[in-house]
Amino acid sequence: MVGSEVTPRSRLEEQCPVCGDRVSGYHYGLLTCESCKGFFKRTVQNKKSYQCAASSNCPVDKAGRKRCPRCRFAKCLQQGMKIEGSSNLLADFVMSISLRK
């Protein structure tokens, strides 16, 4: 399975660094929950570009992770999620989104 790795059970008690939900394994280079894994994958595969209605500093937590996709994706990148084995075009796209406000 691309983007996922098997994780020792003790590590699965940790919280997702993006939203605080319980982690399910390593996804795209970071120990995250299933929700953030899917969100990150859809965002990159569908080349989505999000805008923040506030100041690009929205809180991202389990209860409100769907409120601002721009801030959630920025937090995914900030915490270290990345597409492994991606082409330069895909890497450039991810970087361009991370730099937008």
TrEMBL record:
Residues in Nuclear receptor domain copies: 13-88
Keyword match Cell wall biogenesis/degradation: no
SMART domains listed in its UniProt record: ZnF_C4
Keyword terms of this UniProt record: DNA-binding, Metal-binding, Nucleus, Receptor, Transcription, Transcription regulation, Zinc, Zinc-finger
Cellular component GO terms, alphabetical: RNA polymerase II transcription regulator complex
GO-annotated biological processes: hormone-mediated signaling pathway; tissue development
Chief place of localization: nucleus
Name of the protein described by the UniProt record: Nuclear receptor domain-containing protein
